[in-house]
Amino acid sequence: MAIDFSQLLKKRSPPLIGVDISTSSVKLVELSQAKGKLRLERYAIEPLARGVVVDGNLENIEAVGEAVKRAAKKAGSRVKNVAMALPTSAVITKKIMLAEGLREEELEVQVESEANQYIPFALDEVNLDFQVIGPSQTSPGDVEVLIAASRKEKVEDRVAVVEMAGLAAYVMDIEAYAARSALERYTQLLPNKGEGQIIAVFQIGANTTAVSVLLNGQVVYEREQAFGGAQLTSDIARTYGITHEEAETKKRTGDLPDNYTTDLLLPFVENLSLEITRALQFFFTSTPYSRVDLLVLAGGCALIPDLDKTVQERTQVNTKVVDPFAGMEIATSVRERQLRHDAPALLVACGLAMRRFDE
């Protein structure tokens, strides 16, 4: 079966689990829906060794496949179909205008013709897909079409790892789009559903932080910054003479010496807050916008003690840690205390799991 970026946008999908493969872990989320209410059925996070995934590339497919298998077993899901995502950097996207009223096969021909202008690879080397967004706001008689393309090996590697785990890749999304789906639902819970608010989202990963700014559900700015939680892990490993894997585990559990907070954690929080402040300043100087109303932290580092308070003090912007499951029902089998700790890292996986309910 061909894997593409939007094949399920036109019909309701079968049961799906969202599987997010990041630099440091595999994250799995399963949602259900009853009477219009979403419910978190189960989730799992399985760590990955250093070097297994580098810059979005699966350097050790077998190790990633085993991690997906362990995550699926840990979660206890019976669902086999998977929604996955490619790193935003691995996908070329472009919006184009095409004449309204074209048949599907005519659209495909036009898209391929246009894609040749924007994709620096031969078309037989890429997975290419498109989605008609709707009538053009600026060109009457035309429709706006989103083209998405990625090198075939990027897609095939991700398909291979879920198949190794006995699962089936059904949807291939883009990480930024999956996160945006979960964020869109999150903003609906804000006062006035976030209307008119400029919301800056910082997804703090291991090595990079994805910055996106939203206004009324539309992305007005996107950028990646080269900083993340791996720096703290490296500091822990170097300071205490332990392996990177041991440092990652101890960072998560808090099993570290008394001087850890003052010597390593607080300086890291200060540096991270400074990077976020700089990113905001770059947003202000490179766009027409001069304010941010809400700053949202996501990713594994988001729940570092007092990070939100420090960021709010430095930026003077109201700061919250995202909970993509806010307002959802939670299955009794889910440990809510652990979920509160893990939730900010599950933004992309949650957005992928939501693909189950696409029309």
TrEMBL record:
Residues of the SHS2 domain: 16-183
BP GO terms, sorted: cell division
Pfam families: PilM_2
SUPFAM superfamilies attached to this UniProt entry: Actin-like ATPase domain
InterPro entries (alphabetical): ATPase_NBD, FtsA/MreB, PilM, SHS2_FtsA
Gene3D superfamilies on file: 3.30.1490.300, 3.30.420.40
PANTHER family registered for this protein in UniProt: CELL DIVISION PROTEIN FTSA-RELATED, ETHANOLAMINE UTILIZATION PROTEIN EUTJ
Record's protein name: Pilus assembly protein PilM
